[in-house]
Amino acid sequence: MGRKIRTGALLILVLAMIYTQQAVIYAQNEAEKNMKKTIESENSDGTNGEDKEPEKPGEEEGDKEQEKPGGEDEDKDNYLNNISTPNAETLKDVLMQQLLSNSYSKEEDRVFEYIADNLDTSGFLKLSVAEMAEQLGSKEEIVRNCLDIMKELEPVGVCAYDVKECLCLQLKKNYEDCEVELAIIQNGMELLGKKQLQTLAKIIHVPVDRIKLARDRICTLNPKPAQGYSTGEMTQYIVPDAVVVKFKDYFEILLNDYSCPSFHISKEYMQMLKTEPTFLKR
């Protein structure tokens, strides 16, 4: 019976401690807000009664510091989200800017934009020419010509249907004598990955040194040409609750104070837990 009562008392004390801590935090936040409002009102009253100094010529309004909307608490909550750059250039922006140098018809511009909108995060196209022509209501010849034009744009390899075509586009753009590299990409990537260069040399009928040169060239290619461009979405970062730090002879677990508020048990409550309740003695 005594253990149950002590357990119940402990739970009550823990709940009281949590509610007390939350009330203290809320009171502190309210006090800070009231203090800021008081300071702002005093500053505004003081400036209204005094003569304002004439503005210096050349001083622009943009140089004055502006208040950030949302308050300090919102900035503190979103400090990691601000690291991302949602307003950076997207792959579609880069492609469409390159097409501005030539004059195309309205139908071709519509096809260009449709192709750019249907590229995945790697820069590959997943729709066939027939599917795009059907959805756009255009001729397949026009769609195919527009696709060939976009395959010549930077970054090289974009608008391909798979990795093999992407690498082949880059080889044809960067090297004139790339027959060996093209043959390896089409049929010998597995052997190249296993470093079986002599076997590849026998199959393609070229010296081993030429296979080594082809390997070095292929290693410089980019299998994901759209990598590095913004997707227009905000990056969400994960904030850990705890971090494990390795020291010279031991590990230590550190709690993240930002996401884990600190709680302290009052000495009076601890003393009450150690002493037996008076009603039990009766």
Structural notes for this entry:
- This protein is mainly α.
- Strands 1-2 form a two-stranded antiparallel sheet.
- A hairpin with a 4-residue loop joins strand 1 and strand 2.
- Helix 5 packs across helix 6.
- The protein starts with a helix and ends with a helix.
- About 13% of the residues have low confidence.
Describe the structure concisely for a colleague.
This protein has 282 residues and is mainly α. It has 13 helices and 2 strands, in the order αααααααααααββαα.
SSE layout and pairing:
Layout: H1 2-49, H2 71-77, H3 91-99, H4 106-117, H5 129-136, H6 140-150, H7 163-174, H8 179-187, H9 189-193, H10 197-204, H11 208-219, E1 242-246, E2 251-255, H12 267-274, H13 278-281
Antiparallel strand pairs: 1-2
Structural key phrases:
two-stranded antiparallel ribbon, mainly alpha, 282 residues
Percent in helix:
40-55%
Overall shape: it is elongated
Radius of gyration: 34 Å
The helix/strand order is HHHHHHHHHHHEEHH
Main beta sheet strand tally, sense and closure: 2 strands, antiparallel
**Unreliable stretches covering 5 or more consecutive residues:** 47-52, 54-72, 75-86
